[in-house]
Automatic annotation (TrEMBL), chain A:
It comes from the Bacteria. This is Uncharacterized protein. The chain crosses the membrane at residues 12-31, 51-72, 93-115. It comes from Rheinheimera pacifica. Keywords: Membrane, Transmembrane, Transmembrane helix.
Automatic annotation (TrEMBL), chain B:
Residues 21-535 form the Cytochrome oxidase subunit I profile domain. NCBIfam families: CtaD_CoxA. CDD domains: Ubiquinol_Oxidase_I. It is an enzyme of class 7 (translocase). This is cytochrome-c oxidase. It comes from Rheinheimera pacifica.
Amino acid sequence: MSWRRWCKPGHPAQLVLGLSIWGIWFIAMYAGLSVVCQFVAPAPQDGAANWLNYALFGLTLIVITLLLLLAWRGWRYCQSVQHDNRPQRFVGYVSTVLYLMAALATLAGALPVLVLPPCI
Amino acid sequence: MTDMKKATASAADINKLAQIWANLPGWGSLAAVNHSTIGLRFMVTGMVFFLIGGVLAMLIRTQLALPEQSIISADVYGQLFSMHGSVMMFLFAIPVLEGLAIYLIPKMTGSRDLLFPRISALGYYCYLFGGIIIMFSLVLGIAPASGWFMYTPLSSSEFSPGPGSDFWLLGITFVEISAMAAGIELTVSILCSRAKGMTLNRMPLFCWYILVMALMIVFGFPPLILASILLELERAAGMPFFTVAAGGDPLLWQHLFWLFGHPEVYIIFLPAAGIVSTLIPVFSGRPIVGYRWVVIGIILTGFISFGLWVHHMFTVGIPQLAQAFFSVASMLVAVPTAIQVFAWLATLWYGKVVFRLPMLWICGFLLIFVCGGLTGVMLALVPFNWQVHDTHFVVAHMHYVLVGGMFFPLIAGLYYWLPLVSGRMPSEKIGRCGFWLTFTGFNLTFLLMHLTGLLGMPRRVYTYEAGLGWDWLNLLSSVGSFIMAIGVAMVLLDLLLHFWFGKRASANPWHADTLEWALDMPPAQYNFASLPVVTSRQPLWHDPTLPQRIAAGEGGMTNTTSGRRENWGTSAVSARVQQNLHLPGNSWWPLCSALALAAVCISLLCRWYPLALLAAAGALVLLLCWSWHNGANLQPAASPADAKLALPLESQSTDGPGRWGMVVTLLANGALFMALLFGWFYLWTAAPQWSAPADGPLPVTLLLLCGALASVAVWQFNRLSVQLADGQDSHLHRQLWLCVLTGSAHFILLLSLFMMAPLAYTSSAHDAVIMVILLYLLGHAGLAVILTMLQALRVARGYVSKQRPYEPQVVKPFWFYYLAVYWLSIALFFILPLGWGPVL
C-alpha cells in the first residue's frame, strides 16, 4: 500500500481527509479544554482573554490554514484534469469543496473561544 | 462494450443460473444467504416489530389521553415507553432500512449478490434472535424501564435490580452484531462490486447514502457496544465503571450512549434521504439538480453528526465554552441537510412532477422533516434547550425528525419498489387514503405536543394532574395518534392486499433510471442474466434497451460452467473489472453460529456462567469452522466466459473484498478501542472520586518484553506474506508455525501478567478499566495466534500457496492492528499514568 498514492488529490481518501482533520481538531479542542480545565484552569477573572483560549484559537488558525492549502491544491488538480467526466475530477472537485467546508466548520466551531471563558 | 464477450443467454444458461442461485427447498430455506431473501426477511421482521412498537405507543397515548388515569401503572408505563423507543430505534428503523439496502444495493449496482452473503444471513439471525429475547422481557412483565437510553444510575443494579436492564443490554448488543455485519458488508460491496463503468461519479445517489450510512454504523455503533458491555459488567460482576464512590462516573454512560445515539439519528435519516433522492428525479422526469453537491452534503452529514452528541447533555453541568462549541456544531449539521433539501426543491422546480402515490409521501416528508429540522436548530441553542429539556417538546421534535425523516420516505420507497418485488401495483385509492390519515393524525399528535412541552409537561410521566393546561392537548394528541394508527393500518393492508389484487405492473412502471428496473419483476435470485456495463449516471434513460440486452446475454459473466455463484470484482473508483469473485452459497453456518450466540446471550441473562462460557466456545468453534469452509477451494473451476479478460480469482490475488472486509472490521474494532480510551481519559479527568495507585498494576519491563514478542510475531507474519505475494512459498509452512510459536509466547506472557495483576476490579473503576483492556488485548492476541495456526494448517492442505496467496494478506492487517493497539495500550494505560503520580 503506497501512502504517497493516498495523498494525491484525485485519490478517494481525499474525500474524507479534510473532515478527518476537522474531527481530530474537534477532539483536540474538546479533550484539551477538559484536561486543561481539570489541572491548570486559567483564572476566571481573565474572561475570554487567557492563554488557553489563545492556544485553542491558534490551533484553529493552523488547522484552517492547512485545510485551505489542501483545498487550493485540490482546485488546481481539478483544473489540470482534462476530461469532464473522469471520476478523478469528480473526486477532486468534491474533496476541494469538503476541504473548504471543513475549514468553515473549524472556524465556526472556534468562534466561542473569542468570547467565552473556558472553564466556567 | 469493447472487451465484453457477447453471447446469447440461452434457456439452458438461464436454467443453470437459476439452479446455481436457488435457495434450498422447505426447511432448507433457513440456509438461504441470497441478498433478496435476506433483505426481504429483514424488512418483514422489521415491520412486525414496528407493529409491536406501534401497539405500545397506542397504549401510552391511551393512558395520557385524560388526566389522572390509572389504566396503566407507573411501572408498566415505564416499561412501555422504554420498549417503544428501543423497539422502534433498534428493531424497526435500522433493520428495516438495512433490509432495504441489502435488497437493493446489488440490484442498483449491477451485481448478483452482496459480497459476504453468509454474513448477511448471520446478521439476520442475530437480529431475529436478539429481538425475540428483548420482546420476551415484555411478555414476562420484566422489560427494561429506564428509557431507551438506559441512563445510569437508574439502569444500574441498585435502582433497577431486576433483569430488565440485562435484557436490554444483552439483547441490544446481540442485535448490534447484525447492524455491524450489514455496515461492513454494504461498505465493501458498494466499493468492490459495482457494474463495469459505474464509476464513483455515476453511482446512484442511493448507493452514496448507503455507503455513508454503512460507514457511520462501523464507527457509530462500537461506543454503544462498549457501553453496554461495561454496564453489564457492572451489573453482573460489580465492576464500578459508573459508580461515583468507586471512582466511576454515571455521565460516562451518557457520553458513550450519545456518541452512538446522535449519529444513529443520521444513520436512520440518510437511507431515507437516499430514497428521497432516488424518487424525486424519477417523478420529476429529470436528473437531480446538483448531484455533486448532494454527495458533498451526504459526506458532511456523516462527519458532522459525530460532533453533536453533547447537545443531549446540555443540562448535566458542562463548561459554557464546551456547550457553545457543541451548540455551534449542532447548528452546523443543518447546512448539509439544507444542501440536500435545496437540491430536492430545485429538482422539483425544474422537472415536470407526476404526483403518484410515492410522491405524496415524499411531499409529506419534506413538510414534516423541515419542521423537525427547524426545531432541531432551536434545541441546539443552549438556553432554549435548558427550558424544554425533558419535556414533550423534545418528544415532538424527535418524532418530527424520525417519523418525518424516516417513516414517510420509507413508505414512499416501499410503494415505489413494490412492483419490483411483487410484479404488481398498489392501490392508489387505499394508498392515498392511508397517506392523508397518517399525515393528519401525525400532525395532530405531534404538532400539538410541541405546545404541551412548551407548557411544561415533562416526558416519561405516566399521568398528570387536571387543570394544568395540558388536558385538551393530550386528548387531541391521543385522538391524532389513533387516526395515524388507522392510516398506517390502511397502508399495511394495501401493501398486503396488492399481492393478490394489485394490477400487473408494466416493465419499469415509474420510468425510472436505475438498474434495478432492468430486472424481471419479481427479479430472479441471480438478478442479472448477464452483468451490465454502465456508461451513464442514468443507465435506463440513457439506453432504454439495456434490460433487453442484459436479458439477451450481451453483458458479462454469462458462462455458467463453473457451477459457482460468480460476480465481477471491480475497482473502487473507476469500476474497472479486476477479479472473478466466487460468492458462497446456501449454508447452515450462519444459523448455527447465531444459535450458539443466542445461547451465550440467554445463559448470561440467566447468570449460568459456565454454560455461557461453553456456548461462547461453541460459537467460536463454529465461526472458525465456517471460516475454514469459506476459504479458497483447491480446484476452482475454470470460467471460460471471462478467460479473455484474464480475470484472476480472489484467491489468486493479493487484494480483494475479503481484505477490504477485514480492514473495515478493524476500523469498527478501532472505534471500540477509541471509545474505551475516551472512557479512560474521561474518568481520569472528570470522575469526582477517581483514584489511581502510585505504581502501575503491572511491571512495565515485562509489558515491554511482551510487546517485543508481539512485534517479532508481526515481523514474521509480514515477511512471509510479502514473500508469498512475490511468489515464494518455499518455507511458508515453517514460517507460519514459527509465527504461531512467537505469538503464543506473547500470549502466555500476557496471560501470566494478567493472572498476577493485583486488580481490585470490584472496588476501583481504575482497576476495572485495566482489567477490561487486558482482556481486550488477550482476546486479540489469542485470536491472532489461532488465525495464524489455521493458516499453517491450510498451507499443509494446499489451500494457501504461491498460486493462492490471498488468505495471509487478509490476516495480516489483523496482526498489524493488534500490534498498534498493544503498544498504544501500554503507553496510555500503563506508562502514561506513572507520570500522573498517585491520584486519590
